[in-house]
Design goal:
The protein has about 220 residues and is of the alpha+beta class. It is built from 7 helices and 10 strands. It has helices spanning about 10-15, 100-110, 115-140, 140-155, 170-180, 180-195, 215, and strands at about 20-25, 30-35, 40-50, 50-55, 60-70, 75, 90, 95-100, 200, 205-210. The strands form 3 sheets. The protein has a 4-stranded antiparallel beta sheet with strand order 1-8-3-6. A hairpin with a 5-residue loop joins strand 4 (about 50-55) and strand 5 (about 60-70). The radius of gyration is 19 Å and the shape is globular. The termini are far apart.
Amino acid sequence: MESNQKPPFDPQAFLAKANGGRTLSACKINQIVFSQGEPADSIFYIQGGKVKLTVLSEQGKEAIVAILGTGDFCGEGCLAGQPLRMATAAAMEESSIMRLEKAAMIRILHDEPEFSERFMSHLLARNVRVEADLVDQLFNSSEKRLARLLLILAKFGKEGKPEPVIAKISQETLAEMIGTTRSRVSFFMNRFRKMGLIDYDGHGHLEIHSSLLDVILHDEPHINR
């Protein structure tokens, strides 16, 4: 008996077949995808690799606001009328990135309900992440912020297996993302390793274990509604 169940929608396969308005590029490590202040006229889809988003203040201070991976979009602010890029996107490793012109993206969203649903899920997940990041910064210690960041970067979850985070991610980068110093990050990383929460050799090899969740779940802050 044949199954009538439709295969799961694959946005990457769909975008590969989209007609017009798209360009696929192979980006090298540290290559700029787009820069803060440039016209916001397109959206980018990460087919493979990792990209970091950074913001530079008028005083020249730079902050990492997100690290995105395979299956993520970036630059979607142009759909909300954002005229200029609010951040700079750069590849953290060799990456395959598709550029979709704004008009092409709007056409796809209008004509393809399944893709629109996938994209909306992405936006909602991003919004939840931003809210969680704000709560994290307001209420949690730097140790908990680091533990949460490591779990996010590892995309930890479904089977509880340890997995690499990012090759050669620096302690300076981790410190920037959680708003603390490199020395504090070094202290916590060594502490996590001694407690058996992570495997870390100080030279970029990093694996996360499910027990690291205990650092976050213990005395988790509660917000009254």
